[in-house]
Structure formats: structure tokens, C-alpha cells
Amino acid sequence: MIWKRFCGCAVRIGLLRVPDDLEVVVWTCCTDWVLVLKCEYAVRGEIVIHAQRLQQQLQTQPGSLPFDEILYCNIGNPQSLGQKPVTFFREVLALCDHPSLLEKEETKSLFSADAISRAKEILAAIPGRATGAYSHSQGIKGLRDAIAAGIASRDGFPANADDIFVTDGASPGVHMMMQLLLRDEKDGILCPIPQYPLYSASIALHGGTLVPYYLDEKTGWGLEISDLKKQLEDARSKGIDVRALVVINPGNPTGQVLAEDNQCDIVRFCKNEGLVLLADEVYQENIYVDDKKFNSFKKIARSIGYGEDDLPLVSFQSVSKGYYGECGKRGGYMEITGFSAPVREQVYKIASVNLCSNITGQILASLVMNPPKVGDESYAAYKAEKDGILQSLARRAKALEDAFNNLEGISCNKAEGAMYLFPQIHLPQKAIEAAKAANKAPDAFYALRLLESTGIVVVPGSGFGQVPGTWHIRCTILPQEEKIPAVITRFKAFHEAFMAEYRD
């Protein structure tokens, strides 16, 4: 490792090894280097890197491992596990990216009429009909109009295209808001524990402090206002300026769906305490229980009488989740309401530095919020695809939930929504001691043994945060439905052998 002086600060120049074994040189000031070292992202961490090595071994040495494939249950990446894209969305994208197809007579027999008309409508909104050109930094105005119309239709309250910032998935929007909110380590963000590590990572990268509030596993991962209040007062007593509250609904990694009265309490809490509400709503389509439904926090706020100026609220949505699962297209948006004009100018400035989000993702975000409607040629096929995907996910969630709960030492709450289960594993003390000897967290030790025995990749709960002394794993419900029985069989055999080996 080499140190040099640069801009009055010691600069560290080092070689970092990345998963594909390429070496990259990193130049960073010493302060930024510390922030990078603090940042962790478990869903693509040590276990996934090891899984990639094993996958390469399977390719070069078939039969050398006790399994014949790696099953990546670590990340919400549906199409990597066989989910098919929604036909209407892909038809529109194809026509937008290759508009000369619209001039060919045979296109009418290959593409649905409403996909053709939608592509023409979208291209008319894009300057020069050029999907390969930069756009406005907030996103193409016509596409933001479509997103706003979709939000208004969903919530029953007006939405404004000027409040929409189209982003490369939800993650850049989260980073933008953390960059805006966090000045130093004395600024804090209330985050749920367990939480999606994007939040802990982005808070660390931007130099702030994560203020945890614990979800109650015994009540189905409930969010208690009394705990929020306690954690807020404790942070303030330590001199931390808590600036925002993160709520993930439906939950990741926990899969719960908030009740409407709970959401009302959360909105009032943020209003009373002067907090920005950061609402991660990327799983809004993924609801698997009949007694719960998704309500956006904006809808809740307006329903209880809070207007535009009463509550600063940022809502995040993504094309990566739902029933569409278009992770690689990198599309999403954030809707920003309740901020003053000077603050909005700073948000726009940050967006401008990145020029714009990718145009394919912008188009998809507009389609997700405005899919085919009754009477459109594509509607029947679209609805069949959507319902088929969501119903299959619900069945997979139930099968895995039941399987976990039937194993010794595992308890698993119901997956009401999202794409994950977060079972608690009651590990024997002997296994905990073995993990300590291997210098690993007990749930990471378990997950690594699971991978090496079965090829199943899960994320240890320690990567998301958990009540001290408890151990969990996060497992997606995304393997193809016909593979779920085999996943369950392999997991069951491993777990029984593990418990027998380490039984106290």
C-alpha cells in the first residue's frame, strides 16, 4: 500500500481484489477511504463471492462438488432464476429502441396494437425520438407525466411530474437523499433492524450515523412507535441530529406488510418530530395475503389531512421488483414532496451531476406505473402473466415458510409480501463456538456450510442487523417453482446433519 500527498490530504493508493479477480487501483482521500471501509453490502458479500468460485469450479470440474448447480437465493433478482419478462413491456422497449420497426407492415402481425401505439406515444415524448441520447436530469418530461398519472391513479390523490426524479433503480435515489441529508457523523437516520443493507451502506458512505429501531419478530416484525420514540430520544441525548426515518414496506428482509393504522402513526410521528420520511416502497406489488394491502405513505399522509407543506416525504419505486423483475434495466424513481424550493434545487443539482438515468429504465418506469388496461389488446395476456407470477410467488413463499417451520431449531414468520423469508435459526452453543473459532458470525458460519454442502446461497442475518444473540438467514422465494421441492429437500438434509453434528 502506498501513501502520497494530494490536495493537502494523505491519499492511499491500493490494489483491491474484486470478485472476478481483476485488480483495480483506488485513489481516495484518507477520510473517504475510512468511509468505504465502514461500508458493507452483505447480499453480494463473502458468501456470494465464494459461491461464484464454486460455480466456476463446477464449470471446469463437473462432478467435483456434492451438487450440480448454484442456487442464488441471496438477492431479489427474479430473471436470473428463470422468471420471464412481461411481454407488453418488452414489446414497447423493442419498438422504442428500434423505431424503424414501426414503419414495417409486418410489425402489425408481430406486436400488439397497444404496444405499437404506446411506443409511438413514448417516442413522441423523447426529443429527436432518440433513446440513445441524454435526457433531462429528472427524466423525460412525458415519461414523468405518465409516472405521475400512475401514482395519482394508485393513490386517489394528485401527483406532479415536477416531483418525480427518474433514477437507475431505487438505489441511486437513496444515495442522493443520504448525500443531501448527511453532513457528518452527528447527523443520524432512523433505520429498521433488520434492514436492507443499502441503507447502512449509504449512511456509512456519506459519513452519517445509523440510528437503529428494532422490528418485533414476535409480533410478525411489527413496528412499535414507542421503540421509535425511545431510539430517537436516546440518539438526541448523545448529540445526534436525527434527520429522517426509513420505512421499508413491504419489508426487506422481513416480508411484513404494515397495517394502515400503523402507517398513520408513523406519519404523525415524523410530522411531530420534524423528520423526513423515506419510504422504500419497491415491493408494493408483492402482497401475498388477503387481509393486507399496500398503501403508499403519500396516500396515508393525504388521507389523514397532511398537505404538501406538512411533511417532507420521499417515496422510492423500482422496476426491479414487483412482478416485472427487470433488475438489469435499472429503472426506478423517487417522488419528492414537502420540500422547500431551495432544497429541491439541491436535489436537482445532485441529479444533474449524473446527467440522467438510462432511457430504457425511464421507459420501463412509465410502463410499470401505466400497464395495459381493460379493453387494450394486450390486457388479457398481460394480466395472465402478472397474476401467474404473483400467484406462483405466493405458493413458493408458503412452501418455504412451512418447510422452515417444520425443521428443528428454526422459526419463520409469515411472508406477507416482498420476495424473502427471514427465519430465525436457534443454533446450538457448540455451533456458535465453532463459528467463533473460525472467526465468523454464527449465521455466516451456517450459511457458508449450507453453500458448501448444497449450493444454496443465502445471506446471514448479521448482514442486515438483528437483535443481539439471535441468528437468521435471508432466503429469497425466487427459485423456479418446480425447483422449490428440491431446494427444500437439500436444505432439510443439510440442516438435520448440521444440527446432529453440533448438538450440545
UniProtKB/TrEMBL annotation:
Top-level taxon in the UniProt lineage: Eukaryota
Q: Which Gene3D superfamilies match?
A: 1.10.287.1970, Aspartate Aminotransferase, domain 1, Type I PLP-dependent aspartate aminotransferase-like (Major domain)
Enzyme type, top EC level: transferase
**Entry GO MF terms:** L-alanine:2-oxoglutarate aminotransferase activity; pyridoxal phosphate binding
Q: Which InterPro entries match?
A: ALAT1/2-like, Aminotransferase_I/II_large, PyrdxlP-dep_Trfase, PyrdxlP-dep_Trfase_major, PyrdxlP-dep_Trfase_small
Q: In which pathway does it act?
A: Amino-acid degradation; L-alanine degradation via transaminase pathway; pyruvate from L-alanine: step 1/1; Photosynthesis; C4 acid pathway
**Annotated Aminotransferase class I/classII large domain residues:** 116-487
User: EC number(s) in its UniProt entry?
Assistant: 2.6.1.2
Could you list this entry's UniProt keywords, alphabetically sorted. Answer: Aminotransferase, Pyridoxal phosphate, Transferase
Cofactor(s) recorded for this entry are: pyridoxal 5'-phosphate
Which Pfam families does the record associate with it? Aminotran_1_2
**Record's keyword annotation contains Transferase:** yes
Reactions this protein catalyses:
L-alanine + 2-oxoglutarate = pyruvate + L-glutamate
The task this protein performs is described as: Transfer of C3 units between the cytosol of mesophyll and bundle sheath cells to maintain a nitrogen-carbon balance in the C4-dicarboxylic pathway.
Q: How does it assemble?
A: Homodimer.
Q: Which PANTHER family match?
A: ALANINE AMINOTRANSFERASE (PTHR11751), ALANINE TRANSAMINASE (PTHR11751:SF479)
Family per similarity comment: Belongs to the class-I pyridoxal-phosphate-dependent aminotransferase family. Alanine aminotransferase subfamily.
The protein, known as: Alanine aminotransferase 2
**Annotated organism of origin:** Panicum virgatum
Lineage, opening ranks: Eukaryota, Viridiplantae, Streptophyta, Embryophyta, Tracheophyta
